[in-house]
Amino acid sequence: MPMPNSKAIAARPSGNRRKTKAAAGPRARATADTVFERIVDAIRAHRLTPGTRLVEERLGAHFGVSRTIVRHGIVRLAQAGLVDMLPNRGARIAWPDAARTREVFDARLLIETELAARAARASDGAAVARLRAHLRLEDAARAKGERLELVRLTGVFHAIVAELAGNVTLARTLAEYETVTCLAILAHARGGDSGCPPHEHADIVAAIEARDAKRASSLMRAHLAHVLEGLDLTGAPEGLEAALALPVVPTNRRRQTRSSR
Fold first, then answer.
1. How many CB atoms lie within 10 A of CB 60?
2. Can you tell me the distance from the alpha carbon of 202 to that of 134, in angstroms, rounded to the nearest whole number?
3. Are 89 and 243 in contact (CB under 8 A)?
4. Short-list 190, 41, 165, CA closest to 111
5. Is residue 26 within 8 Å of residue 66, measured between CB atoms?
6. pLDDT per residue over 70-101, tens digit each?
7. Residue 70's CB: how many other CB atoms inside 10 A?
8. Are strands 83-86 and 53-54 parallel, antiparallel or unpaired?
9. In the beta sheet, which residues pair with residue 189?
């Protein structure tokens, strides 16, 4: 799921129009859903960070679609709480504040502890084999130092557990929270921590394999608590302008500026 990094979206030169048009050919079938899904993928892989400006013209050139289609995709992102729409400043990837981050983790604790228990009760050989295969992918990415791939895989792990639990509605809800969690980790992680502590996924899989619903639920609760503890929410910026490192213009200064025009 290749996606340009945040700097590329904000600053890449438009280039030759003929080349842009030619490159758009193979992507002509892209839709607003495509824009939405690809940006969500980039957020989950930590390739798009909080505060990144989404430039409609650049995204339209990348996907080979009109700005109208891009705008529809961005509106969907805003409705999902993943993008902040700023008057006269365009759209930016959302910056979850401390309150929003805690709310998301509260919701995940309620949902995922039950999903882990259900996955354990429904466990069979195929489910365990799938989880074990995924753990091997995580281990390989960790051993190679592929941080972005590991981040993506740790999110996929939670999605697999949710799928094995057998509740499609809860799995979809969790997917939304997982994306906001990625933004919260990028905004508040201490020392570049990527979220999931090592070995905890393996412990959860062992409990699921043993069909121990109570232990699987308890381990998932502890795991999510550890991820939250790894975030520094005490010094979170207050207000959108502070979060995006934008200058705050005093009210009286704004009035002076207007009157001087």
1. 20
2. 10
3. no
4. 165
5. no
6. 999 999 999 999 999 888 778 999 999 999 99
7. 26
8. unpaired
9. 231
Cα–Cα distance measured from residue 210 to residue 220, given in angstroms and rounded to the nearest whole number: 15
Helix then strand then coil, in percent of the chain rounded to 5, is: 65, 5, 30
DSSP SS3 for 189: strand
State both tokens at 242: 């502070």
Q: Are strands 90-93 and 83-86 parallel, antiparallel or unpaired?
A: antiparallel
CA-based angle 153:155:161, to the nearest 5?
Answer: 100
Determine which helix (DSSP H) or strand (DSSP E) holds 221, and give its type and residue range: helix 213-229
Task: Name residues whose C-beta falls within 8 Å of residue 169's C-beta, 6 or more positions apart in sequence.
Answer: none
Please answer whether residues 36 and 73 qualify as being in contact, where contact means their C-beta atoms are separated by less than 8 angstroms.
Answer: yes
Which residues face 84 on adjacent strands? Answer: 92
DSSP-derived secondary structure letter, 51: T
Helix runs in 54-97, H state only: 56-63, 67-79
CA atoms within a 13 Å half-sphere pointing along the CA-CB vector of 235: 4
Query: If you average pLDDT over each of 37-41, 83-87, 112-116, 189-193, which comes out highest?
Result: 112-116
162 close to 171: Cβ distance less than 8 angstroms: yes
pLDDT number for residue 186: 87
Q: Residue 126 has which token pair? A: 């195929």
Type of residue at 127: A
- If you compute the radius of gyration of the chain from its CA atoms, what whole number of angstroms results? 21
Predicted model pTM: 0.73
Q: Spell out the residues 6+ positions from residue 199 whose beta carbon is closer than 8 angstroms to its own.
A: none
Which residue in 109, 116, 48, 125 sits closest to 82, CA to CA?
48
